[in-house]
Amino acid sequence: MPTHTSPADALRRVEALLAKAASTDFSSEAEALLAKAQELMTRHAIDQTTVGNATSEVRDAVIGKVIVVRSPYASARASLLNGIARANHCRLVLQGVVDGGRQCVLFGHGSDVAHVTVMYTTLSLYATRAVLAADSGNESPRRFRHAFLLAFAARVAERLHAASAAARADAELETGGSVALALIDRSRAVDHAVEKQYPWTRTVRRSASSYAGLRSGRSAADAAALGHQRALGQRPALGPG
């Protein structure tokens, strides 16, 4: 039987798990903590969709939150934020350049937006440490790091989607029903909010010219310890050491 947690309580639990994952020296512990954080994010979204909407006191409204993604490599970092958002029923709209960074609006249900924000903060810091530690070899450092961060973002998105799918499957086993339609409705509410405020958006695709950076960034994302280990077939590791 699933337990129903308030958005504030769920956020505190996710923040605590991510803080522990970022600080531990034990890679297996980091794997378990980050997996649990993503599971909580997905399960809370399921809870809010299937139960919370029936109770006005816990209704999770769609909001838009302005986030400025700082330089350097702001466009690649925005790709990381977008990947985390997509895996958690949110949408990201790029508005423009602000002091060398990118101003974005993150749309989603309030609890999802809060979860995405704390997950992005943790993984952005990890990506920064990883890219600075990576050897660019004969590549231009700027091209290498841009490609690294783009590949990191893409692989993180893949792993988060897989972790979310595993959490949904667990929830369906517990409840004996399907949560897919409820989550589709949750995502559609966000899409509607985006279309209402920004009716003329277009998809932006990023490219990179450093194969070494792409390969290294993908490897770093595999080492970032996300998701269910059994479902993804990854060995537990947060990073070097």
**Largest pleated sheet:** 3 strands, antiparallel
Radius of gyration from the CA trace? 18 Å
Our measurement of the CA-to-CA distance between the termini, rounded to an integer number of angstroms, reads 39 Å
Q: Would you count the extended β strands for me?
A: 3
Average pLDDT across residues?
76
Number of domains: 1
The global form is globular
Main structural class: mainly alpha
**SSE string, helices as H and strands as E:** HHEHEEHHHHH
Count of helices?
A: 8
Can you characterise this structure?
By secondary structure, the chain is mainly alpha-helical. Helices cover 61% and strands 10% of the residues. The protein has helices at 7-23, 27-50, 74-87, 110-133, 141-175, 180-197, 211-222, 229-232; strands at residues 62-69, 91-98, 101-109. Strand 2 and strand 3 form a beta hairpin. Helix 1 runs parallel beside helix 4. It is globular and about 55 Å long. It starts with 6 loop residues before the first helix and ends in a 9-residue tail after the last helix.
